[in-house]
Specification:
CATH topology of the largest domain: Rossmann fold
Helix content: 25-40%
Shape: elongated
Largest sheet: 7 strands, mixed
Number of domains: 2
Structural class: alpha/beta
Length: about 350
């Protein structure tokens, strides 16, 4: 249901700003409706306000005119930069601001923006400063649920896929390393055991046993992929594996995308890498523990994307999530048999 303070003059909307500060997964999923928004306002420029380093997700997005990046600061410097940001956004005179973030930081930007239309969710604590308000619909995969924001603009949920560009240098980086190891896409599974959030990480011993099951019972090879601050998790899984696996070289988010494009299946925790697999149409299996898959799993929305989740698991003192590596392997085996 829509709640508005007045009618919308769509002809007036020539400059649009979307606010989604972080993290990687949320910024990526926010790209789901950009094409639809551009089709609704074909002559409007669409800008995106995001924090570093999450702007990397938006590199070469075909629907964006400009990516406005906020540098991380603290203390007095943070306050001064916030004031500069408010002024910069105000000077740009946006006709429409879409507050996808819905937090205090984004609400302040909206408040001081002087935009003709300010759009946000009724569930936001800053809903009082919006001219246009949208209500969240039924809980579903976030890239679809993001379309609820556009209801006041008369844009309905449409078929889509999150957008992500993989650089040619990243493609060459992944290819060179995999060719050197003699690994091929058809025979490679990538496992990513890390996560910036500790509570989202499935037990490393379980990942190691899963690696062994894959090596013993399939013809697939396993690469352990890791990002910044995830090296120890990757090394731990490799050391605990009795059958052996490959430890990927250091990779940023874009290089990780290139590796995903060269694998048969991704196995990971709930997080940005799983959403990246959706954007790249790379089959995936995400293992959920403390977070619900209702909003963050693409299972049932995009083909060949699945999750494992034990709703009865309540023992939050450990991180086995009530899912054994043998159950995970059974699911992996079933997925491999389904892939074209």
């Amino acid at each position: 249901m829509l709640v508005t303070k007045g009618s919308i003059d769509t002809a007036r909307i020539k400059k649009i700003l979307i606010i989604q500060f972080r993290p990687f997964g949320d910024v990526l999923l926010a790209t789901s409706y950009l094409k639809s928004l551009k089709e609704k306002f074909p002559h409007a420029r669409i800008d995106f306000l995001v924090k570093e380093p999450f702007q990397k997700v938006l590199y070469k997005n075909p629907w964006l005119s400009e990516i406005i990046t906020i540098k991380p600061h603290s203390g007095l410097r943070y306050i001064l930069n916030r004031l500069r940001l408010f002024k910069a956004i105000r000077i740009r005179c946006y006709d429409l601001i879409i507050d996808q973030q819905g937090g205090t930081g984004s609400g302040q930007v909206v408040l001081f923006s002087k935009a003709a239309y300010k759009l946000g969710y009724t569930q936001s604590r800053w809903q009082w400063c919006y001219d246009l308000k949208a209500s969240l619909g039924p809980v579903r995969y976030r890239s679809f649920q993001n379309f609820d924001m556009l209801k006041p603009l008369n844009i309905s949920e449409q078929a889509h896929r999150p957008q992500y560009h993989v650089k040619s240098g990243s493609v060459a980086y992944a290819k060179k390393w995999m060719d050197h190891q003699g690994l091929t896409k058809e025979k490679t599974i990538i496992i990513s055991p890390g996560s910036p959030r500790k509570k989202k990480k499935w037990n490393s011993q379980n990942f190691s046993i899963l690696v062994d099951e894959i090596n013993l019972k399939t013809e697939m090879q396993v690469i352990i992929l890791w990002g910044p601050q995830e090296y120890e998790d990757a090394v731990r899984v490799k050391k605990q594996s009795r059958q052996g696996c490959y430890l990927a070289p250091p990779s940023d988010f874009n290089q990780a995308a290139a590796f995903l494009q060269r694998c048969r299946l991704l196995i990971c925790n709930d997080g940005g890498l799983n959403h990246l697999a959706v954007a790249l149409s790379v089959p995936s299996l995400a293992i959920f523990g403390n977070t619900s898959p209702l909003r963050w799993s693409a299972q049932g929305f995009f083909p060949y994307h699945y999750h494992l989740f034990n709703a009865d698991w309540k023992r939050y003192s450990d991180n086995d999530f009530g899912i054994t590596p043998y159950e995970a392997f059974q699911r992996v085996s079933a997925i491999l048999s389904e892939l074209p």
